[in-house]
Amino acid sequence: MLHSHTKIFIHLIWATKNRKRLFKNEFRKELSFHLIEKAKFESIPFISLNVQPEHVHGLINLPSDRCLAEFMQKIKGESSFWINQNKNFLKQFNWQRGYGGYSVSASQLEKVKKYIQNQDEHHRKKSFDEEYEEWKREYGIFDD
Asked: pTM to 2 decimals?
């Protein structure tokens, strides 16, 4: 094989510190635009992105020469700096430590994109905390 070909789709989830519901509708749009632009700048554009009041879902295709931890550090670090510089909150804003990153099969890509785009509807039925507990069980993640 003369060339390397990879498709490493990752569903990302990260939350505000203490999962506080801080993002109102207008700010959610502004933050979404900002995250999209930052990801483009990092040459890892979001395939799908949805900012919720206390968490964010994103879908990327991670290039084989890039590190997920570095991408997330840049996305979260720069966006919290941007939020604080723009004085969008009375107190200093922080993201919760860590993030979730889950591989997505190419055969499930459309299903995950739809899931991300339908977060508003989804969370009318199930809270983020309930969803988070389900994800941990499904992926075998146990708190220390």
From this structure: 0.88
